[in-house]
Design brief:
Order of helices and strands of chain A: EEHEHEHEHEHHEHEHEHEHEHHEHEHE
Distance between the termini of chain B: 56 Å
CATH topology of the largest domain in chain B: Rossmann fold
Strand content of chain A: 15-25%
Helix content of chain A: 25-40%
Strand order of the largest sheet of chain B: 2-1-3-4-6-5
CATH class of the largest domain in chain B: Alpha Beta
Radius of gyration of chain A: 21 Å
Radius of gyration of chain B: 23 Å
Oligomer: heterodimer
CATH class of the largest domain in chain A: Alpha Beta
Number of helices of chain B: 25
Number of domains of chain A: 2
Structural class of chain B: alpha/beta
CATH architecture of the largest domain in chain B: 3-Layer(aba) Sandwich
Largest sheet of chain B: 6 strands, parallel
Largest interface: A-B, 73 and 76 residues
Chain lengths: 339, 573
């Protein structure tokens, strides 16, 4: 695992070993909001073939992307947010994934042992495991570089166990930074495979921001997806303002399935940052804001401000427009306007 | 209590979202419960009095907890009231308990007790109720209990029972030759500044403010500074004179329980600074690396030390304190010089923008910043002016929510906030809340198309491999328009002058200034925060830092050189 450098081959640090372990388990998506302590991991991800890094615009969004991804792919994404307030921001998404039983690995840098005994005195000091005691399915903590791979295996085993769900692995950040010349990786403990909870194949997925938006006629009214089998999914808990993140995760995990996310105009305005990210990722995704013609101008303006395409629902009778609205891997976000 | 009838001067403000806003008559409604917690934080931080935030249900309570973490780090007097069913409480209470210092569960018959005293020493306080109706009752009760609250009065209720520890600490302090007084927020707002000033004068000690103390309420700041004569240097957090004083001191007297390791370079792993610290605080939670703990009110202890010094005479080295008056003047000159350098055709230097913003802001302005590079740039120039900024957690994404609270608590003062483009979307929707309330807050978006503070660490430690820190281009004018705010885009010095002129005009809705600034600039304050973040691996990173600095110097000379010019000039002094 060593890699060449100006000064000869250098031993891997904990971040490089973790990235390698993720790929050995077949994981390929890391979602992360930066902080200083996550940077060695970003560096390692960038050097590791097969790992994709998505950087959304808040930790909360990162968590909901991971929940959608876990449900649609049947595999965990790795969420790497920074310690302290970064962890606090992701708690609602952890609780949501626990309720929907979406497998997610929250891999978080934490303070080293010497500092954890006096966290209120420490910069960005927060007791992660106490904070998350009510939300995560399982939590563990790695202070020992030699144990890193084994603890990743165990955490993924818990995420893919019965029930599936979000697990947290705190890793003391010196483990992530320091090089470990004499480490011997423990043999890989394979994790169980699970079928995705969302629709298989090319079925259309309708992502509802929360269950109150359930509307059996929604797609029919839009003239979309009549001939396709479809499945409605929504996050585990009320995710007002997070539905687009959830839908982005669904699409990343199931690239062949069209995903339509239904929200309100208020929901759309609360998610402009995610719309920018979804668009920049060029992940085909349809975002339907159904609130009548009075809001149409706002929706159009919001679509244009985020760089997304938009089309009136009436145009969805046109088969070409329907295909465009469903998006493809080469397109970004399309916003449907009812009115 | 009808919150609709209250303002900051005659009552307590309550900020809520969703069902809680409906349940609590007259509360200020925000779009998001996390932003509501930030608004209460801002009102308490800048207004000085306590504020309330409220949420109903699991999702909003978890959002509120996330915002409360920032208020807890800086020990702000915030009451967070939540309504949770039994099942919801199992999930949310661990987060709420960890995000606060006191949790009162009214469902099991607990009473709110002496809320005023709790807010002074163990803030924030979480109050748990069972449903919306009991939530409204609890909020009303809390508001009545703290309507006449003052930090100083609440602190005065403590008797100095631990006077023995105070007496025992005095000799070591008296023998100090290079003493520094480090003032935390608790001491700044709750203790008599005259007592601290008298100690500084008698002991000939420079006074270093922590980041959270630098953000003391505008009404307190003037009184605090007025207590100090011109020959006592008061040094704002993060500046080079501040760092130098702490690094060269032979004894740090830390006043106030809000003082944390970052505030005295408590680099315990790196052992870079081993200056002994005497911590004076009411109910300190943990010893940290303090050599001595004194459980005492800061003003009382200051007077006790003054008496000790007057009896035995101070041993302070000649010129120790005076040198920092000169250093402070030199620092101001250096950063002003740097601000004059950077104007490009289509992009402005961050130093210039920050300097111009601070210069143009009316004298009574409250500035709002956050933990990223934009906040550090603001702090580089807004020193010894009121600035509300998360200190202990250096949180990002809080400033627009905080501005809602500050505008409500200090309606007569202009509120000028800065936000980085990376953090803009955390609370951007609250621009619509400001619009609805007719709050003329000015929000400057430092648009450098990057996560700049993080990029800085990549420059310093990762050979300038800027993985993941570029942001897609966004037109923040369009975003402002969507929330009903006025907006202007700035690319040139002429644009900036026009924008600042707009900012000074009276208005009835917020103004968003989208400022295109250089990428990769390094703020002049905040080095202690970077060091605190990598404390634990500093030694193992020293080789990487040396190589990275070489690479950065070759590839990125202007940013590094500007910083080195300022630091070298300040240290020479």
């Amino acid at each position: 695992m060593s890699r060449p450098s100006l000064f000869g081959r250098v031993a891997p640090n904990g971040s490089e070993r973790a990235a390698e372990r993720f790929t050995q388990h077949g994981l390929n998506l890391v979602i992360s909001i930066p902080g200083t302590q996550v940077l060695p991991l970003w560096d390692a991800i960038d050097r590791t073939e097969g790992l994709k890094l998505v950087v959304p615009r808040s930790e909360r969004s990162a968590g909901f992307i991971a929940e959608g991804y876990g449900l649609s792919s049947g595999r965990p994404a790795v969420v790497v947010n920074t310690l302290g307030p970064g962890v606090a921001n992701e708690a609602i998404a952890v609780a949501s994934a626990a309720k929907s039983m979406a497998p997610v690995l929250y891999f978080t840098p934490c303070q080293p042992q010497a500092k954890r005994s006096r966290l209120p005195q420490v910069f960005q000091g927060l007791d992660h495991s106490a904070y998350m005691a009510g939300t995560a399915l399982d939590q563990s903590l790695c202070d020992d570089a030699a144990a890193l791979e084994g603890m990743i295996d165990a955490a993924l085993g818990a995420a893919m166990g019965s029930p599936t769900g979000p697990v947290r692995l705190d890793v003391a950040f010196p483990v992530l930074f320091r090089r470990t010349p004499k480490f011997v990786a423990t043999p890989l403990r394979k994790i169980a495979s699970r079928p995705p909870l969302a629709a298989p194949g090319k079925d259309l997925i309708l992502a509802l921001e929360d269950s109150s938006l359930a509307d059996g006629d929604l797609l029919d009214r839009a003239g979309l997806g009549g001939a396709m089998r479809r499945r409605e999914v929504h996050p585990g808990i009320d995710a007002a303002g997070s539905g687009l993140s959830f839908a982005l995760g669904l699409r990343l995990g199931r690239p062949r399935s069209p995903v339509v996310v239904a929200t309100t105009v208020e929901g759309l305005l609360a998610q402009l940052g995610v719309a920018v990210v979804a668009n920049s990722q060029r992940v085909g995704l349809t975002f339907a804001a159904f609130e009548g013609s009075s809001a149409a101008a706002t929706v159009r303006k919001a679509a244009e401000a985020t760089g997304a395409a938009w089309m009136p629902i009436a145009a969805a009778d046109d088969p070409d427009a329907v295909r465009a609205a469903f998006g493809s891997r080469s397109r970004g976000l399309t916003v449907l306007v009812d009115g | 209590m009808d919150f609709a009838q209250t303002t900051s001067s005659d009552g307590v403000l309550c900020f809520a979202a969703g069902a809680a806003a409906n349940a609590i008559r007259g509360s200020i409604a925000l779009r998001d419960a996390q932003a509501a917690a930030h608004a209460a934080d801002g009102a308490a931080r800048a207004g000085g009095g306590p504020a309330i935030t409220a949420a109903v249900g699991l999702a909003d309570s978890l959002r509120l907890a996330a915002g409360l973490v920032t208020a807890c780090g800086d020990r702000l007097p915030v009451v967070a009231a939540v309504a949770l069913s039994s099942d919801e409480a199992d999930v949310a209470l661990p987060a709420l308990r960890t995000a606060s210092r006191t949790l009162l569960d009214l469902r099991d018959g607990s009473a709110m007790g002496d809320l005023a005293q709790l807010l002074a020493t163990r803030s924030p306080v979480v109050v748990v109720t069972a449903d919306s109706e009991s939530l409204a009752t609890a909020v009303e009760g809390a508001a009545s209990a703290i309507a006449d609250w003052s930090h100083a009065a609440a602190v005065a209720a403590f008797d100095d029972a631990e006077s023995e520890s105070a007496t025992a600490a005095l000799p070591a302090l008296r023998d100090s030759k290079r003493p520094v007084i480090l003032v935390g927020r608790g001491a700044a707002v709750g203790s008599d500044p005259v007592a601290i000033a008298r100690l500084a004068k008698t002991w000939q000690a420079p006074v270093c403010l922590t980041f959270s103390a630098t953000g003391m309420p505008a009404s307190v700041l003037g009184r605090f500074l007025a207590a100090f004569s011109a020959d006592v240097p008061v040094l704002p957090a993060g500046t080079v004179p501040w760092s130098t004083a702490l690094a060269r001191a032979d004894r740090i007297l830390a006043l106030g329980s809000g003082v944390a390791e970052t505030d005295w370079f408590g680099l315990t792993e790196a052992r870079l600074v081993r200056t002994p610290v005497t911590l004076v605080a009411l109910e300190p939670e943990s010893e940290g690396v303090a050599e001595t703990i004194v459980n005492c009110e800061a003003g009382s202890f200051s007077m006790a030390l003054v008496e000790e010094l007057e009896r035995g005479g101070a041993l302070t080295a000649d010129g120790w304190s005076e040198r920092f008056i000169e250093a402070r003047a030199k620092w101001t000159e250096l950063v002003d010089d740097e601000a004059q350098r950077g104007v490009g055709d289509e992009v402005l230097s961050a130093a210039l923008v920050a300097r111009q913003i601070v210069s143009a802001a009316p004298a009574e302005t409250v500035f709002v910043g956050e933990g990223g590079a934009s906040g550090m740039w603001l702090a580089s120039y807004a020193w010894l002016r009121p600035i509300a900024m998360p200190a202990q957690h250096a949180s990002i994404g809080a400033s627009i929510g905080m501005a809602v609270g500050i505008a409500a608590a200090e309606p007569q003062r202009p509120v000028w906030a800065v936000v980085g483009d990376g953090a803009f979307f955390y609370c951007a929707r609250e621009l619509a809340t400001l619009t609805e309330r007719g709050a003329p807050v000015v929000v400057f978006v430092f648009n450098d198309r990057s996560w700049n503070a993080i990029r800085l660490v990549q420059t310093l430690f990762f050979r300038r491999r800027t993985v993941g820190t570029d942001l897609p281009s966004v037109n923040y004018r369009d975003m402002a328009d969507l929330h009903g705010a006025e907006s202007i885009r700035v690319k040139t010095a002429g644009d900036l002058a026009k924008a600042l002129s707009m900012a000074q005009e009276p208005r009835t809705r917020p103004l968003v200034v989208d400022v295109r600034i250089e990428k990769g600039a390094i703020p002049f304050v905040g080095a202690n925060l970077i060091l605190a973040e990598v404390d634990g691996v500093l030694r193992s990173l020293s080789g990487a830092a040396a190589v990275s600095s070489g690479v950065a110097a070759a590839k990125d000379r202007p940013a590094l050189l500007a910083n080195l010019r300022v630091i070298r000039g300040a240290v020479r002094k």
